[in-house]
Design brief:
Helix content: 25-40%
Strand order of the largest sheet: 1-2-3-4-5
Largest sheet: 5 strands, mixed
Distance between the termini: 35 Å
Structural class: alpha/beta
Mean pLDDT: 84
C-alpha cells in the first residue's frame, strides 16, 4: 500500500521548550488509520514524559481518523504528567477528538 504524500505521521515533529518544561507537538496534514503505529511511536518519545505540560498545535491538521484520536487519548493517559492543551483544531478534527473522549483529559481550545 502506497503511503499518502501528505501523511502527518511523517510530519509530526516533537519540539520541547526547555525553559518552561512544555512539550509542543505540531500536527500537519492527515492522520489516517495507516499512521497509527508511527504516531504511537512518536508519542512514546521519552521527552514527552519529562514535560510538565503539553501543547498540541493542530492548526495544520486537516483530517484525523478516529483510531488516531484514540491513540492520542492513550498517549495522554499513559504519559502526560500535567495539563494537555490542544489548539487550532479544525471543526471536524475537534469533533473526532471529542468523540474519542480526548476532551475529558485535555483542554480543546477552539
Amino acid at each position: 500500500m502506497a503511503a499518502d504524500a501528505h501523511s502527518a505521521a511523517t510530519h509530526v515533529p516533537v519540539q520541547l521548550t526547555g525553559d518552561e518544561g512544555c512539550a509542543r507537538v505540531v500536527f500537519t496534514g492527515r492522520l489516517a488509520a495507516g499512521d497509527v503505529l508511527h504516531l504511537e511511536q512518536l508519542l512514546g518519545d521519552p521527552r514527552l514524559a519529562l514535560a510538565r505540560t503539553w501543547l498540541w498545535d493542530m492548526t495544520g491538521l486537516v483530517q484525523l481518523d478516529l483510531i488516531c484520536a484514540y491513540a492520542l487519548l492513550r498517549a495522554i493517559r499513559r504519559t502526560a504528567t500535567g495539563p494537555v492543551r490542544i489548539c487550532g483544531a479544525r471543526r471536524a478534527v475537534g469533533r473526532t477528538l471529542r468523540i474519542a473522549g480526548v476532551g475529558a483529559v485535555a483542554v480543546i481550545q477552539d
